[in-house]
Amino acid sequence: xxxxxxxxxxxxxxxxxxxxxxxxxxxxxxxxxxxxxxxxxxxxxxxxxxxxxxxxxxxxxxxxxxxxxxxxxxxxxxxxxxxxxxxxxxxxxxxxxxxxxxxxxxxxxxxxxxxxxxxxxxxxxxxxxxxxxxxxxxxxxxxxxxxxxxxxxxxxxxxxxxxxxxxxxxxxxxxxxxxxxxxxxxxxxxxxxxxxxxxxxxxxxxxxxxxxxxxxxxxxxxxxxxxxxxxxxxxxxxxxxxxxxxxxxxxxxxxxxxxxxx
Length: 262
Prior knowledge:
Elements: H1 2-12, H2 14-28, H3 38-57, H4 67-91, H5 96-101, H6 108-134, H7 146-170, H8 174-187, H9 200-206, H10 210-224, H11 230-254
């Protein structure tokens, strides 16, 4: 019965969520000459800068690996998580005025932010696949498995977003704390380096990082044209569902108190 109510509620406010996502697009690209093209250019420019820094200045090499695809995959996926979770964290606090004027299910705010950034993420896949083609990386039927990891990453990010948006209502310091945590999290995710460079005990620790599992899943397909292992499938699915459930529980239990901290 509860699930039915949630689905009906979601359908009821689909138009509102669409309008909020559209508003975010207009605000983000307002007075921008290139507009939405920045979603294509930004990951490419970041990739070239980081590739130049690590492969030329630091003489960083990964033998037998298409480093541009390796780097671009990590950047695109982590950038989605970083931007979506950050936007979701501030979504409730920044919409207090709207919440006090009209009834809106509060979960719409962090969810709409994750969906908005998700559209940008899908656009950023275009330059990623261009790099795959240009550099001659193998292409196989395993590409059909990529939506699985993207959905897992989305669910995980929404769950994180629910938790962060809840905490930030009661503790505004979370805005600053999370920026530090994100920086640490970025270095705990092998975006520009290979995890095999680390000591074995650190490798085992890093593998508990869900973002490591998502990035590894995508790289196995894009770089090796192989099917990810059953354990990787399991890790991705479990981490996504568990974090999503935790986020929903935390948000639901605290949402009625949000109005007192407006």
